[in-house]
Amino acid sequence: MTNSRTAPRGRLRPALAATVTALTVLGLASVPVGTAHAQEKRLKSWGNNRAGQLGDGTWTDFRTTATTVLGLTSAEVVKIAAGGAGPANGHGLALLTDRTVQSWGSNGSGQLGDGSVFSHNAPGQVVNLSNATDVAAGGAHSLALLADQTVVSWGRNNYGQLGNGTNADSSVPVRVEGLNKVIAIAAGLNHSLALREDGTVWAWGYNINGQLGDGTSASRTVPSPVSNLTGVTRIAAGCNHNLALVGPPSSATKPTSGNAVKAWGYNATGQLGDNSTISRYSPVDTQGIWLGGVSQIAAGCNHSLAVTDSDNRLKAWGQNTSGQVGDGTTDYRITPVQVPGLSGIQLVSGGREHTIALLGDNTVRSWGNNGSGQLGNGTTTDSSTPVTTLTALTGVDKIAAPVGGDFSLAN
Fold first, then answer.
1. Disulfide: which of 49, 267, 299, 397 matches 238 by Cβ 3.0-4.6 Å?
2. Is 113 helix (H, G, I), strand (E, B) or coil?
3. Into how many domains does the chain fold?
4. In which domain, by residue range, is 85 found?
């Protein structure tokens, strides 16, 4: 990865550029008090920052409590995504109300989409992109769903994860071939997923462990359908495994027992939840009794998560080296177990070896690996049970963690 300690021209909004440059040199980068938006709610980040993935204008190694992502007010941020392919790298994406996308952090493969391969510690605009409706971030590549229900991608493409029929990296958005009527996207370490409005899932990129779900181990540079999978309403991608919710999502007002979680791909640590450690090249049923049904699914690198029942409780399974399953142990779980002491969960996201959850009171809890402060509780001590994240925000409604990285975002 090439690391640039100064942002190139055009990366920052003009009004902030001079201030950020000056403050960065002094090691004091922050939103200056005198600016018009100084008191507005802002996007926050914490954890590892060696590639500028916290977006706060510094290269400080890590932050154990929330810092401010420069230049982005909470009101203008519609969706956020976090990517990363190792403990010390990562990148962030923010979809804004004007349907443009801002990016920051690692950029050695062009995953920031600004036409360069220089890493940046503050947000700047993805080029040639003005009609996005969703974003997803993988190991070193990024995806955007467009208003016309097609998908574009940029960044690393060594396994075809950009889906444009080549293996060439791209530092600007390129069209994913052969996809339309897409309603959701997800990005793994080196592969990508799209959910179409007909309930089918399409996958492309790296496939050595069956993560494309087409019954083979052949990587693909264009999307192909996941075998024997229909009626899908939610998708999630881990490093090398995937989850799909089949059937309508449950909710407090409309609980359902008619949905199921399917999984496929790498399974050495039980992340598929099928009571085995055998990798699967096509979808299998995740075991467990989903009382009241499943409302949400999420995947960390090698662990998996599902929000279930009318109380919005959380179940987790898979790798648990650092306590990322959250059950008070470091035992791997090959079937789902309940995370104790949590209810009212609104959102959940999985990182490399940590998990973050947004509760109904708009506060954040986190657990697992904390070597870079990615739990945000002011320490670097791992926790196998949920701890309170110090976000310095009220009314959080968005969270993100990178599938292969060690930082977190909240808005």
1. 299
2. coil
3. 1
4. 14-410
What's 126's DSSP letter? P
Residue 7 lies in a domain: no
CATH number of the domain that 101 lies in? 2.130.10.30
Query: What is the DSSP code (8-state) at residue 261?
Result: E
Reduce the secondary structure of 45-109 to three states and give it as a string: EEEECCCCCCCCCCCCCEEEEEEEEEEEEHHHEEEEEEECECCCCCEEEEEECCCCEEEEECCCC
Residue 43 has pLDDT above 70, yes or no: yes
**What is the value of pTM for the model shown?**
0.90
Q: Could you tell me if residue 3 is inside a domain?
A: no
- Please report which confidence band the pLDDT of residue 252 belongs to, taking 50, 70 and 90 as the band edges: low
Is-contact 122 29, C-beta < 8 A? yes
Strands 120-125 and 132-137: unpaired
Domain-located, residue 338: yes
Nearest one of 177, 258, 180, 262 to 221, comparing CA atoms: 177
Rg (CA), the chain: 19
Residue 348, helix vs strand vs coil: strand
Please give the span between the terminal C-alpha atoms of the chain, in angstroms, as a whole number.
Answer: 28
Would 290 be classed as within a structural domain?
yes
Distance of CA 87 to the CA centre of its chain: 14
Cα 121 from Cα 106, distance rounded (Å) = 9
Cα 264 from Cα 244, distance rounded (Å): 9
At residue 220, the pLDDT reads: 98
**What is the CA angle 45-49-53, rounded to 5?**
65
